[in-house]
Write a structure and sequence with these properties.
alpha/beta, Beta Polymerase, domain 2, five-stranded mixed sheet, two-stranded parallel sheet, 5 helices, flat
């Protein structure tokens, strides 16, 4: 099956994570994540394997890091509460134990374990954009999805338009709507937005 072959080829590229996906459930066969600097190498592999590009789009993960930081703080607070409860129960149990024989010397009560120091909420890291590429195969149905994260403060990654000329239009559209910058692209002028547009309407912080 083509999916197994392409997984093996892509896994040879440094920094690339490749996994098989249930096509009936997800609509594609191979899921690929990679650092932005490796996008050209991965796309060259797909080109050599006879794949064509279907689309390039973006996802704005604005607010993700803040949500993760809040969840981490919530889990830390729950762990602290559980530790304090366990310490209190241990102290209660030690205090309530019978001394045994009247002449026996009672053992000193065990001290409860100290409660952990409260953890500060981690500072949220920078949110990112996810650039999503969809490829398919000419002779055999085999859809490959590539996911690349780039920081919102510097949403740049290499253009693949020199490998797939059809990507020229997809990259211009992604630039229009998300402000993604594909370095090396011959012309990132607006494709669907007005020529003087200085906004990107699919960003979550866009306000018309």
């Amino acid at each position: 099956m083509k999916a197994a072959d392409v997984q093996k080829s892509l896994a040879a590229v440094a920094g690339v994570q490749v996994g098989a996906v249930d096509y009936a459930a997800r609509g594609f066969h191979v899921d690929v994540t990679l650092p932005s600097q490796e996008i050209t190498a991965v796309v060259q592999v797909l080109d050599q394997e006879g794949f064509f590009i279907e689309s390039i789009t973006g996802v704005d993960w604005l607010g993700e890091q803040e949500a993760l930081a809040k969840e981490a703080a919530k889990q830390a607070a729950a762990a602290k509460k559980a530790a304090e409860k366990a310490a209190a129960e241990a102290a209660e149990q030690a205090a309530g134990e019978a001394p045994g024989d009247a002449g026996a010397v009672a053992a000193p009560a065990a001290e409860p374990p100290p409660a952990p120091a409260p953890e500060e909420s981690p500072e949220p890291e920078e949110d990112s954009f996810e650039v999503v590429y969809d490829f398919n195969h000419f002779r055999e149905l085999c859809r490959v999805t590539i996911r690349v994260r780039v920081p919102r403060s510097l949403p740049e990654l290499p253009s693949i338009s020199d490998i797939y000329p059809g990507a020229n239009w997809h990259e211009r559209e992604a630039h229009d709507f998300f402000g993604l910058v594909f370095t090396g692209h011959p012309d990132l002028s607006p494709l669907l937005l007005p020529e003087d547009a200085d906004f990107h309407p699919l960003r979550k912080d866009y306000k018309p």
